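Checked the freezer inventory, then went back to the computational side. Two predictions to log before the end of the day. The first one is the construct we discussed on Monday; recording sequence and tokens without edits.
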Amino acid sequence: MADRKPSVVVLDYGSGNLRSAVRAVERAGADVTLTGDLDTAMEADGLLVPGVGAFDACMRGLREIRGERIIARRLSGGRPVLGICVGMQILFSRGIEHGVETDGCGEWPGVVERLQAPIVPHMGWNTVQVPEGTRLFAGLEDERFYFVHSYGVREWSLVTNDRTPEAYQPLVTWAEHGPEGQADRFVAAVENGPLTATQFHPEKSGDAGAQLLRNWVTSL
């Protein structure tokens, strides 16, 4: 049916701002289910992976519901996944917090580490450096988004070549935190085929965040 809403599962693995994420994606035009059930998560048009807190704790919760398998299986079938905040960080190879090194999902190479800025955490509104060709940030190139984090990915290390399909060529959005001359650069968002992620919280980012979620939902 033409008026059918896309179905989205917000993955419930014990972490994240779950209710506000559900409400935000509903307002973006999706039919939303909050669950950790594998079959339901596999069948949805889109999967949103939230995350708040420590990398290690989030990975433990994710593994308890086999969430890393859900993500991998969806992506192997080209089915969309959106990670938010620590839900983005756990998509990378590993995280290092307080001397503890934890394996992530490994969907992207890279290390989540403490931001090297004079004041941490990075908390509040910030602009982002949007890449050419973005669909996620369509109409939002000059907007600000809400960040709350002390850790991030400071180097993008995925290597692609001319044989990589255009749809799978990653588009990386960057942001900086700290005063001029002392600012640290980190990955603010990634668009990579069916896998999309933001370090900031769209559900806390006002009208700009609402439009970004609509951009994602309408792509499902």
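The second is the one RB wanted added to the comparison set:
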Amino acid sequence: MGLLTIIKKQKLKDKECRCLILGLDNSGKSTVVDWVLSFYTNRPRREITPTVGFQIHTVTFENHNVQLWDIGGQSTLRPYWDNYFEKTDVLVWVMDVAVASRLEESVQELRTILQNRDRLGYNCRIIVLLNKKDLVADLDLVLDKLEKDLAVVLKLENVPIETRTTNALNGDGLETLMELIVRGCAGV
């Protein structure tokens, strides 16, 4: 039995879950975290400013302590993302679907992360949030192209991947996010 297996078993026993929230700058990562904190801890919503570095928040859900690691998405910080991969149970990738010019960049960054699967861990669940859907005039057209691009990127063996459209300002599409994260931690 390897050290990582022992650590994973201990985390399951302690019901701890580590979730990275990643994506390009201004994709809505901190707004997603703010909505989760507001919804699950009854904390008032806050004014969001760009995350420089990272912020860690813990939310209790279904007897699990979920650590949400909100990591800045500026291009100068992206080379350091892989420093946070170790012991990650769930990766939430947030994409801003309202800015068409940045969609390919976001898909490429996700592709780069997934090519480094040995660092992220092959058992890490991946959730892709297509955020800011309320700002897109022809959402179906954008989603159709994006789904094709993501289908190529996300073809990984034995890796459960969830994709959903969201509006982090009002929580639309985020209602079951914590359930998905906890299921990912439990390996379900």
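For RB: The longest helix spans residues 100-115. The chain has one domain: 3-186. Let me know if you want it refolded.
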